[in-house]
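Q: My collaborator sent me two sequences in one message, no labels, and asked for predicted structures for both. Can we handle them in order? The first one she listed is below.
A: Yes, handling them in the order given. First sequence, followed by its structure tokens:
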Amino acid sequence: MSDKPKGMAAKGDQDVLTLETYRGVGKFQGKVAIVTGGDSGIGRSVALLLAKEGAKGIAIVHTPKEQKDADAAKQLIEKEGSEALSIPCDLAEGEETCKTIVDQVVGKYGKIDVLILNAAIQYIVPSIEETTPEILEDTYRTNIFPMFYLTKFAVPHMARGSSIVSSTSVTAYQGSKSLVEYSSTKGAIVAFTRSLSQQLAPRGIRVNAVAAGPIWTPLNPASREDENLEGFKGKEAPLGRIGQPIEAATSYVFLASQEACYMTGQVLHPNGGFVVNG
């Protein structure tokens, strides 16, 4: 993206990890993953890192209108030697859609080792008086309901040692005056993570989350007016810049890997240095 926010590090800076400089060591050799919202942003970076780590198959779940981005992500994944499965759908359609996704992946690979619950939308709503049933329902039907449904159908196909990683947000901890609807779903995801981790612990399935922010992803320009986007660009973290998707993606890879085998019910915070005490 050419219009980079002020303070964003340039490619090649020594303190910034890039997809080109990341070196996999086979952490997910032979594993099968589902990544919702895997066509762009953090989701795409997670999918690519899983491929770099040797994953056998990676299912990218995305909206039909993002097929072009999904095709590009699929090519990048396959370039790393992994199989990529593009699944266009609207997660907000509900339980049956989520069951179809799981059935498609299990039908092809016979199992699910990693479930990345990342898809989300956000609406900029300056005042609670301006929210509508449509905005509220769309936000919850997209951001939190599919996490329940996908997990419900995926868990029976997940063996001990499998992992679920969800995307919450720094807004769940700091709040956001113009993202009340979005932030509240992210708070729900924190509770979902902590509660589900206790439920699935006896089965050896770990459940964690990542609360990223501020990260430069397509979600921000897509949901913000120009003047509001300038405000986002000005949110410099203590490290002095807005983060790149891969700088959040590494937290997902760690939590899903064997290296995090004693972590469940936890949230990692790749946010450039904001202290959230969460």
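Q: And the one she listed second?
A: Here it is, processed independently of the first:
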Amino acid sequence: MARLVLLRHGESQWNLENRFTGWVDVPLSPRGIQEAKNAGDKLRGFTFNRAFSSVLARANETLRLALEGSGQTNIPIEKDKALNERMYGELQGLNKAETAKKFGDDQVKIWRRSFDVRPPGGESLKDTAERVLPYYESKIKPYVLKGETILIAAHGNSLRALVMELEQLSKEQVLELNIPTGAPLLYELDKNGKVLSHRYL
């Protein structure tokens, strides 16, 4: 049986400021640093074979702090932009509440949560999935099929795309899916990569 832990980065400075972040490389907030350390505490007792991360600093730093906290600092780590957050286009850097006042709450929710509607100049969740899932299939799943224990540090939407696939969620179900910052999500998978169970640690 393989174990796959998905870890959304700790709170970033722009999460704190309620701004659309996307591909902008912003650091963790003080709370985000603590969330990453807390995740490390929850991961003690796991022996990871390898880890994967996006190339963005908030995911890299979360991974580093979580692995330090779990007592594992010498495992192979692969970083790839395929795991990056959704690119939010013209919304990047804008305050979410102010954007909702301008365009309406419903429109902003569609931009943030829907499967196939793109924000202006940005990616939809469908677009994000079209880079996340091939990367998972080619680079990560082969280790799952070997029964390894793997940690992925990434972002709200890149992980939503992966969870949608793992749990076979519909477009309607994924609309309501939110992955909290700094909370390790454990999947146990069978020899074919199918989900046997999942829970937050």
